[in-house]
Amino acid sequence: MDWLAEDTITTTDNTLPPWKVVIVDDDDEVHKITKMSLSSFEFEHKKLEFIHLYSGKDAKKYFSQHDDIALVFLDVVMESDHAGLDVVKYIREELDNHYTRIILRTGQPGTAPQNDVIKNYDIDGYKEKTKTTISTLNHAIHIALRSYRDLIRIKNYQKGLEALIDSINNMTQIDSVIDLSNAVLQQIKSVLNTENTHFLIKDSAAFSMIRSNNNHWNLSINESKALFVDDSKLIQNTQPIVMHAQQCFANKTHVIAPPYYCFYYQSKRGTETAFVIKCLGDLNSMSHKLIKLFSINMILTIENLLIDKNS
Prior knowledge:
By secondary structure, the protein is of the alpha/beta class. Helix content is 41%, strand content 19%. Keywords: Phosphoprotein.
């Protein structure tokens, strides 16, 4: 079972936040032309939001207060011949911001030779204003935003993994199944927002939710409590969260039907588990992977508590 397989989960959200683009230039015409040239630009269904700054000093102040800038078009020569280069160093070295993409622009290429600048400064492009066209501008911004998107995904995934590890560490300190179950929602919310979770655990001899054998459990968790549920109460249950779990057991595979995400796992000792989570919104690919990792560790923790207790 590949718990890290890439899944295609799309979003229909039409209210996505825009990409924030800062224009730093002491020439107001450059601001107007850049904004006009990119007025209809979209990347991954998100438009651009422009922030206009007119000096290196203003840029340093703004970046010291904002860390969500996708891209900056940065003039080299402003209040000094190297004002733009100073801003690059400030962003990368003093603020330790390696996510924002930086495209330098200059009307005086001799002041800062291109090869020297690209070699010595952490930038994503160096453009002469007189040679920049709408086509080259669109090309550059596509590449820059794609890089920014990927870096932010990695950053967010790392944060999610840290939350995941903390959650697992917290849960391993609990020795009661009900206490653990009551902690599930709080722990999983630190990884991603959730509304409802449901555990269904069966041993290798009982694949159906309505079988009543020794060593099988139905564990329901909601916002207020966790409790064991008798099989007889699930026979006529038509709740989607239960029906998806039944399908999961029947097919021995994951069932992805947003807002329900059902993960199937069979451990080495033969115990089969369906972990179903109802989310407030669709999971993106990164969150999907995190919840899979969370699920398998949660499953094994609960299985150990239940099997050891009843062995």
